[in-house]
Amino acid sequence: MFKNQIFAITVGLVVIITSIPLFAQEEMTAEDIIRNMTETLNPEQSEGKMKMTITTTSGDERTFVYHTFAKGGGEKSLMKYLEPSRIKGQTILMLNDGDDIWTYFPKKNHVRKLATHAKKQKVEGSDFSYEDMGGSNTFTEEYSSMRLKDENKEGYTCYKLELYRKPDSDAGYSRLIIWVDIETLVPIVIDYFHEDDPELREKQLILRDIQLIDDIHTPTQYTMYNKLDDTKTHMEIIEVNYNVDLPDELFTEEGMKQ
Amino acid sequence: MKKISLPLLGFWILGCGIFILANGQVEIYGYFEPQYSGIYLDSTYYQSSYGKLRVDLSSTDIKNVRFGADIIYLNYFGKKTWDILEFLPDSIRNAIPPYQQRFYQFSFKDTLYLDNAFVRLHVRRLALMIGKQQISFGTGYFSNPTDVFNTKDALDPNYEQPGHNALRLEFYPIPRLNITALLSPIASDWENSGKLGRVKIGLGHFDISVLGYQFKQTSTDFYTFQQTVEERIIVGGDIVGELLGLGVWGEGIYNIAEISDSTSYELLVGGDYTFEGGLYTMVEYHRNSSAKDDHQNYDLNDWMRYITGESKTIAQDQIYGLIQFPLTDYVTIGSMGIFSITDQGAAIIPMVNYSMYENVDITLMLNLYLGSEGSAFSNTLGTGGFIRATVYF
Known about the structure:
heterodimer, A: alpha+beta, 5 helices, 45% strand, B: 18-stranded antiparallel beta barrel, two-stranded antiparallel ribbon, 3 helices
């Protein structure tokens, strides 16, 4: 009898304890998941070096290497090209989550502010637009989200979310579908749908090789597939450091010129 | 100006290069750029070309210090000597006495020169830049009224500009506020040197700047080839931002001449938009009140000052346009257009840019002039163009 009670209590505790996270996960709304995912992808501060490889329809490849800095959970970011020599020293500064963009051309020592429509332009001919590269709050500010049935994707158990562009938003995509790894809250796949056609999948971003760096789950390989042009752009983190103290002056016109 | 011996300059550069390389502190990069130009003029096809080698050196090894320099070697071939009078209206050309006409010829000569060489020291919110450096002000694409240091070629406005000797102090007290003081020591004394002050501030989605510049301006009388130096003060500013989804910008100056007591103003406004698919469009309007409002009154000085870059335009009112489309991943096609409201002259400049390899660009541009004789873009200027390859290393 006593043994049975102990067994029953033990089983009950195990069930309760093991069901807490599942229960909590079930309770997570789409907004909660997006917020957590955004925080995971955009640590308070970071400095890194990235390699971007563009593959065209003909199979040709172009490679770029750049130095990146970010602060305020991605609210401010700066990227300076290191290679190739054609664009060496060119710098892009994004403030206010990518709402304000400046470019610096070292050969002319000239800083130019870009209008929002330039966010639709490809970054150095890649499959990433300025909009894709910046804007840590884009998912929450520009889109309303809903949670769909969880799915397995690319070998991960994922939350599946559907995001629709808000009526007053000028975001470059009408709809997004995001698969977020339940364990790390890192997005695994993002489908981007055409600005004017919510059924036309324009791009797909796949994130791979998640590593724990400075206690932050970090996807170190990003591949953006352009489904309309049949091209792809691969980005690889060569090095990244989250334990940095970046001065605010870095994210200014002066910072671009340094 | 004292001339620098080319062999001496070469040895000096070589010495600096060996020292720097030996210390492993400096990055070396640059480009080689051959350009073939052709023009069909008066039933004759002329070709005039060059090969340009630019070598850049830069170093950031010392904390808070950046050193940068570049050396350019230009080698011309094909037709090197040109008679400017061939391009001017008959009425002006015929008024020049025959014995004087040789003065309007010029020749391209092979040159080696130091284009930029500067040191930039920066400590948190303060930066000091000393030496021959790029000075680039203004928000306009085809022309920059606030930039008195450079005159853009409206037919190739994106091409790099030469460096200028200056001492520039920049102060960044708060984010998006930049105060610049610049001394351009072109003369031997303080009095005759150019002095510029500029404040640039970010307000919302706009960047706004105001500037004042006191300098000595040299103007040439091309009838007598006498030069006049006159003190001028310009005040002006520029703005760039966004309105109703369009990129918008503008810049203007008010120019006051001390001796002649003449005043003029220059104004440029523009806007751009990128459509879905990457189609980029831009338009600018440019007014230069110092230019003439009737092309019948353009004289030799107007033409020569425009051709030599002493004045930014010959016509008082112009409209510029640019359209570009990424045809493939590596090929961009487009066209620039310039229309002179003052004299109804126009130029169309179709262009193709092909990124052949990672560090090889090919640019093709044609110049088609459609105006009647005497207008700023007269068809008597000939039909031509160029093909330019730029190989970066």
